[in-house]
Amino acid sequence: MNLVSLRLITDDVTRLATFYERITGVAAERPNDDFAELRTPNGTLAIGSTRTVAVFGPGSARPAANHTAIIEFLVHDVDAVYASLRADGVEPLGEPRDMPWGNRSLLVRDPDGTLVNLFTPVTPAAIAKFAETPR
């Protein structure tokens, strides 16, 4: 088994895809108004319209209702990302901080309220853990 994708359901695919394009630097593929994908070397963030929920089963997903997950992106320099986001008017949830597990992390919320962690490994163990992971 291999985790290949995470899908967010939203009332506004364009707004959410544009936000993730901005914070990741990855262009979204948008085959239609109801779906977008941001592909990274290790996985894909898919964004689906609430209109697509009926395909999976009515009521199976609700937009802007996530309070349990944090989407995480490995970035080259979290402090530079912080400065860039602030300059663009994105208000992070505090400044970057060092975590006990060796990453320097920055939390933001996407337009639907989902937590997003942008992080850079900073300790030797964390750097080694992610050494093979493209950034």
CATH class of the largest domain: Alpha Beta
**Looking across the biggest beta sheet, what order are the strands in?**
1-4-3-2
Q: Give the beta-strand count.
A: 8
Uncertain spans: none
Q: Can you tell me the overall shape?
A: globular
Following the backbone from N to C, one meets helices and strands in this order, namely EHEEEHEHEEEH
What is the CA-atom radius of gyration, in angstroms?
16 Å
The CATH level-2 architecture of the largest domain is identified as: Roll
What percent of the residues sit in helical stretches (DSSP H or I)? 10-25%
Assess the beta-strand content as a share of residues: 25-35%
Overall pLDDT level: 92
Q: Count up the helices.
A: 4
- CATH evolutionary superfamily of the largest domain: 2,3-Dihydroxybiphenyl 1,2-Dioxygenase, domain 1
The separation of the N and C termini measures 23 Å
How many structural domains does the protein architecture include? 2
* Secondary structure category: alpha/beta
Largest sheet, strands/sense/barrel: 4 strands, mixed
CATH fold description of the largest domain: 2,3-Dihydroxybiphenyl 1,2-Dioxygenase, domain 1
